[in-house]
Each structure stands twice: as structure tokens, then as C-alpha cells.
Amino acid sequence: MLSWLEGPLTREGATIAGYRLDDDAALLDQLPGAEWSPCIRAIAGCGQLYALNLTASRDGEPLTFAQACANIGILCAPVDPGHRFAAWLRSDVSAIARDVQVDAIAVFRLVIRRLAALNPVGRSIAAVLSNHLAAWLGETDHPAAQAHVADLLSAAD
Q: In the chain, N or C: fewer CB atoms in 10 Å?
């Protein structure tokens, strides 16, 4: 797994964005061969790449991804561990993929919000990304994208 992750996570110019990256790095650090893994150092923000940790917190306690999305009004897949486990047992890849696709768009929306909050340069980058995301969401008939379009439209009302 670590060798598979090293390609995209250590590529020059890559930016790592994720939720609770410290927890991810700690879990990956338990794998065999992890002590020399450049991808773990990259996820932990110790490498040459930029790591954008999207973790939100309240009163010093980290929020779950679902709580963070709810906190700022971004749609994410419903969290039902029993449902996901049952889908995994049944090899129901479509149910799992649907949730992952909705959450991937939610992560992108969180990245845009985070960039906008950083500084004026981040705000200008976020504006461009937001426009591209809106155009893509409006042009695609993908169910996850359409769910986010509906979420954005309901927020605008």
C-alpha cells in the first residue's frame, strides 16, 4: 500500500489535501516498512510538498468529516457504518462508490473554502476553482455532482 501511495503523494508539485491527515499518517505508520516511507512524511506535512489539512475542530476537539461539512453547510454522504459494512460484505461497490463520489466533491468544496480563508492569494485561487467547479457541476449528469448542485441551489435560496 505504501509503495502505491508514494507515486502520487511524492510527485513534484503535488498538493496533499485531506481530513485528519495526522490520524491517517499514524495509521499508515503502523504498516510494515513505514519507518522509511516518504509518503507518510508527506502526509504528515514533513516533506517538500504542501499538505492542506482540512481538519475542523470545536473547542479543541476534532470534528468528524460529516460534522465539519454540516457545520459549513456542505453536502456529504450519510455516515452509517452498518450500511457501509453491509455493502462491503455484499460487494456492493456501487453503494460505496456513490458515497465516495459525493464525499470527493465535498472535499473539493472544503479545499475551496480553506483556500479562501488563507489569504488574498488563496481567495483568488478559490474563486477560480469555485467557478470551474460550478461549471463542471452544471454540465455533468453524474448523480454525485447533481446532488451537490441541488445542495448549492438550496443554500442559495
A: C
Grid cell 481538519 — which residue? 55
> What 8-state DSSP symbol labels residue 33?
T
Cβ within 8 Å of residue 112, ≥6 positions away = 126, 129, 130, 133
Give residue-wise pLDDT tens across range 99-114: 888 888 898 888 888 8
Rounded CA-CA distance 62/19 in Å is 10
- 82-95, pLDDT tens digit by residue? 888 888 889 888 88
Sequence ranges of the domains in the chain = 1-53, 64-157
Residue type at 148?
Answer: H
